[in-house]
Amino acid sequence: MPDDLSRRRMLSLLGCSAAAFPLATPMAFAALPSDNRLVVVILRGAMDGMDALQPYGDPDLERMRPGFDIGPGAGALDLTGFHALHPAMAPLLPLWRDGHLGFAQAVSTPYRGNRSHFDAQDVLEAGTAGDVPPLAGRDGWLNRLLPLMPGAQGRTAFAVGRDEMLILRGPAAHSSWAPDARLDMAPATADLLLHIYQDDALFRETATAALGLARATGNTEGRGTDALFAFAAAQLRQDARIAALSLGGWDSHRGQARQVTRGLTALSEGVLRLKADLGPEWDRTMIVAVTEFGRTAFQNGTQGTDHGTGGTMILAGGALKGGQVWGDWPGLAEAQLLDRRDLMPTRDVRAYLAWALHGLFGTDRSALASVVFPGLDLGPDPGVLA
């Protein structure tokens, strides 16, 4: 087993090397004493939930979006007779049929500010009641969860890159790694890394995965979404029980069809990669994909949509009681919209997250509503877990 000095020197070398390159997507892990797994995917840029899950049964939708392809007649896949799945998510249709895919409609954080991406993402990751958390002392809701988990630790988590996700920031032990950062390493350095960790099973496997990831992405600056989810699965097969990662590129002010298709294709491929790589652990895994806010009900003049409020949460995994859409539908008549422009939220997205944490890890409900998500009204259990 390598001595502490050698390990610190090598990690310092790796950290300095990786910090010199830009990264596209940060990822974080935490180890927990549980057989259940949680994967949180932040969809940065505000995904249009009414495009991913199209409420084509509402007659106002086509009126508000005449330039969009909507419903089964335009290639979407019918799910409930009211909702249709965007064609880019067609590979996930078998998961829906197996009860491993579901959606929560008309959700939002409590944020009601100026529809700023940055502020809304901070509120989403901080899990706060609506005000943008102050710069000093910001922490994330996953970090506040960890002290509530007896035996939680961060020894299987690694940080390589310059960014940190707010969702796991805080005093609780954790680490982060951006797996699609450029990791340029000479062959001799790679050999040295593997030699140092040869007798340490945990570090050897992680180092091997890191080097394989760098080779798989060709040392480029691309998003490497498949490698991103593959690396997450590798950690979740070991000691990690919570993974948090983000996918960017969801802002669709213009040319939304192209933008949303690209994003949903990447997300679908990532979910299927997790399923394939997790193997039997898939049955104990829940994936939640959330975004900072939804988009306007009306299309704009550039075949896109603008910043809105109510949106859609995507859930997947073998631990899910899926094949259904949760939440009340508020309607799209003008009087039913928020500010006469946005889908009206009917439930706090944090409530779904809290009930998932309660079911997966047994976290006390009062602690969820006061510590993890301060000021949250949990409301009734939506029944997202199998």
Any overview of this molecule?
- Keywords: Signal.
- InterPro entries: DUF1501, TAT_signal.
- It holds the Pfam family DUF1501.
- Residues 1-30 form the signal peptide.
- The longest helix is centred in the C-terminal third of the chain and has 23 residues, at 256-278.
- This protein has a single domain (4-372), classed as Alkaline Phosphatase, subunit A (3-Layer(aba) Sandwich), CATH 3.40.720.
- It has helices at residues 4-19, 49-52, 60-64, 93-97, 117-126, 141-145, 187-196, 201-216, 225-236, 256-278, 349-361, 365-372, and strands at 27-31, 37-43, 53-54, 77-78, 84-85, 101-108, 175-177, 240-247, 285-291, 311-316, 325-326, 347-348.
- Helix content is 33%, strand content 14%.
- The chain has twelve helices and twelve strands.
- The chain has 386 residues and is α/β, with parallel strands linked by helices.
- The strands form two sheets. Strands 1, 2, 6, 7, 8, 9, 10, 11 and 12 form a nine-stranded mixed beta sheet that branches.
- α11 crosses α12.
- β4 and β5 form a beta hairpin.
- The termini are far apart.
